[in-house]
Amino acid sequence: MNKMVLVDNCILSSLSKIDRLDLLRKFFKRVEIPFSVLRELKEEKIRGFEFVKRIEKIVTFSEKELSKEKWILVIPLGEG
């Protein structure tokens, strides 16, 4: 099992649409997404895509809040 993975909107959206976000957790101890992915998901939610709700339930902005229920951490990406 790898330690950490940074995933993009394509991966999250695809896995959520088939209700298999659990695959990320199966293969990686830690899953992170940049703020930009969260922004893209918000746009898809506004368009009415229901799969976004499954992702929102498991996302947190704080390492302290990482848990069995909240296991995807939103992180800032540095400029450069």
Give the helices and strands as they follow along the chain: EHHEHHEE
Share of residues in strands:
15-25%
Q: Strands of the biggest beta sheet: in what spatial order?
A: 1-2-4-3
Give the CA-CA distance, first to last residue.
30 Å
Could you tell me the mean pLDDT? Answer: 92
What is the assembly state of the chains in this entry? Answer: single chain
Coarse shape? globular
How many separate domains? 1
Secondary structure class reads: alpha/beta
Largest sheet: 4 strands, parallel
State Rg.
Answer: 12 Å
Unreliable stretches: none
- Beta-strand segment tally: 4
Note down, in words, how this protein is organized.
This protein has one domain. The protein is built from four helices and four strands, in the order E-H-H-E-H-H-E-E. Strands 1-2-4-3 form a four-stranded parallel beta sheet. Helices cover 41% and strands 22% of the residues. By secondary structure, it is α/β, with parallel strands linked by helices.
Notable traits:
80 residues, alpha/beta
Describe the SSE topology:
Layout: E1 2-6, H1 9-17, H2 22-27, E2 28-34, H3 35-46, H4 51-56, E3 59-60, E4 72-75
Parallel strand pairs: 1-2, 2-4, 3-4
